[in-house]
């Protein structure tokens, strides 16, 4: 079988190196181009030493015609939001399929995008046909998509943590609390003050209270699952660790529930979904590190439902789920290169 020729944009970043590690072991994918503005001309392995003797392709500036000449069929965009929507339209026009890891095509309504991202959306034409790439919920739409909006790292814990309860209409749909913690790689490799070692080491801090842009992303997906509005209070925290996301979610049941039934609902909802593990033991980020698993644990505490969710922000939260989407789009087994 011919391999699918792939390009990775934003090759010097954290999600890109994680993606390259997975694609290099994918039997049906071949990475033929990696782009970077700052590192163009250097071998990928010079920028990411973990790939020494494994991948020495020189990085290049992004040129859609050059990607077309190389026969690129699938582009993975590992660029910041705001940039993706500038560079992706010509690639789609040239017939390439795109998996965008940024947030640019996740929110269906450009008015909601402008409200939370504080900038106007510049590619509403492609936004209209973008598919939200959360495979456990939207696999059928992902299979036929030309443009997949890879889901955000935090939102996956909130959406998959709550979907079984929202779907079965078992909880109140306002005031759901999602309390999340992330490792520092969640902020990317591009330097910023808050991620300097002396700023974040030995410290835990909250940010984006009431304003974080993942709030509408979580609400949008859960509103589709529940066929009606859902409102969450999402509070992210920065943790002094490299990687991992842990979310503690608090929901109020609409009717009395027993714990056995609750666990059964989760296990049935995720039966046949290879990357969501409903556990009988308490999850931890370490159990999911470097994997595409998202671990869930559910318990009744004083009349409230507590859901714990853990994942690796760079694999399950970004590059692993991107390859899961790639597998669905190109007709490969969903788990290829991910187990
Ligand atoms: N880190 C994470 O855990 C997750 C990240 N994401 C999303 O994935 C995307 C990539 O994230 P991540 O890899 O962490 O980010 P990084 O900051 O690590 O890398 C992004 C890369 O994009 C390139 N870049 C930066 N600014 C521009 C620009 N204005 N124009 C063109 N290229 C630019 C840079 O490469 P160069 O300067 O060499 O061109 C940079 O290395 C982001 O949209 C992020 O929000 C999603 C889920 C999780
Ligand atoms: C720790 C940390 O800073 N995390 C990032 C997560 C961003 C991310 O990767 O999500 P998007 O793809 O939606 O940008 C943040 O809160 O902005």
From TrEMBL:
InterPro entries xrefs: AGPR (IPR050085), AGPR_dimerisation_dom (IPR058924), AGPR_type-1 (IPR000706), NAD(P)-bd_dom_sf (IPR036291), Semialdehyde_DH_NAD-bd (IPR000534)
* Record keywords, A-Z: Amino-acid biosynthesis, Arginine biosynthesis, Cytoplasm, NADP, Oxidoreductase
- EC numbers listed for it are 1.2.1.38
Q: Where is the active site?
A: 153
Tell me which residues make up the Semialdehyde dehydrogenase NAD-binding domain.
5-145
Q: Where in the cell is it found?
A: Cytoplasm
Gene Ontology CC terms, in alphabetical order: cytoplasm
* Catalytic activities: N-acetyl-L-glutamate 5-semialdehyde + phosphate + NADP(+) = N-acetyl-L-glutamyl 5-phosphate + NADPH + H(+)
For this UniProt entry, the molecular function terms from Gene Ontology, in alphabetical order, are:
N-acetyl-gamma-glutamyl-phosphate reductase activity; NAD binding; NADP+ binding
Instruction: Give the metabolic or biological pathway.
Output: Amino-acid biosynthesis; L-arginine biosynthesis; N(2)-acetyl-L-ornithine from L-glutamate: step 3/4
* Broad EC category: oxidoreductase
For this protein, the record's Pfam families field holds: Semialdhyde_dh (PF01118), Semialdhyde_dhC_1 (PF22698)
GO process annotations (BP):
L-arginine biosynthetic process
As for what it does, the entry says: Catalyzes the NADPH-dependent reduction of N-acetyl-5-glutamyl phosphate to yield N-acetyl-L-glutamate 5-semialdehyde.
Q: Which family does it belong to?
A: Belongs to the NAGSA dehydrogenase family. Type 1 subfamily.
Protein's UniProt name: N-acetyl-gamma-glutamyl-phosphate reductase
Q: Write down the species.
A: Limnoglobus roseus
């Amino acid at each position: 079988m011919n391999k699918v020729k792939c390009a990775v944009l934003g090759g010097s970043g954290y999600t890109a190196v994680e993606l390259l590690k997975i694609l290099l072991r994918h039997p049906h994918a071949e990475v033929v181009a990696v782009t970077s503005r700052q590192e163009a001309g250097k071998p990928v392995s010079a920028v990411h030493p973990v790939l020494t003797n494994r991948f020495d392709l020189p990085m290049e500036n992004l040129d859609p015609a050059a990607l077309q000449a190389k026969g690129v069929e699938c582009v993975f965009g590992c660029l910041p939001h705001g940039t993706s929507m500038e560079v992706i339209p010509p690639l789609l026009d040239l017939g390439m399929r795109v998996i965008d890891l940024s947030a640019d095509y996740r929110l269906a309504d450009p008015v909601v995008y402008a409200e939370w991202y504080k900038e106007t959306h510049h590619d509403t034409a492609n936004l209209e046909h973008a598919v939200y790439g959360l495979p456990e919920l939207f696999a059928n739409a992902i299979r036929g998509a030309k443009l997949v909006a890879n889901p955000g790292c935090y939102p996956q814990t909130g959406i998959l943590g709550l979907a079984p309860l929202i779907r079965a209409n078992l909880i109140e749909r306002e005031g759901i609390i999602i309390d999340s913690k992330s490792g520092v790689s969640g902020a990317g490799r591009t330097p910023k003050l808050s991620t300097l070692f002396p700023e974040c080491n030995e410290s835990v801090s909250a940010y984006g209270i009431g304003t974080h842009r993942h709030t509408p992303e979580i609400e949008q997906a859960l509103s589709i699952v529940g066929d009606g509005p859902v409102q969450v209070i999402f509070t992210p925290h920065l943790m002094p660790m490299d990687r991992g996301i842990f979310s503690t979610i608090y929901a109020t049941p609409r009717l009395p529930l027993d714990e056995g039934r609750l666990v059964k609902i989760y296990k049935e909802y995720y039966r046949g979904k290879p990357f969501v593990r409903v556990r009988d033991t308490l999850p931890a980020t370490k159990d999911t590190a470097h994997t595409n698993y998202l671990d869930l644990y559910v318990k009744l505490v004083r009349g409230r439902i507590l859901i714990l969710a853990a994942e690796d922000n760079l694999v399950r939260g970004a590059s692993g789920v991107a390859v899961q989407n790639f597998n669905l789009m190109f007709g490969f087994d969903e788990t290829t290169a991910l187990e």
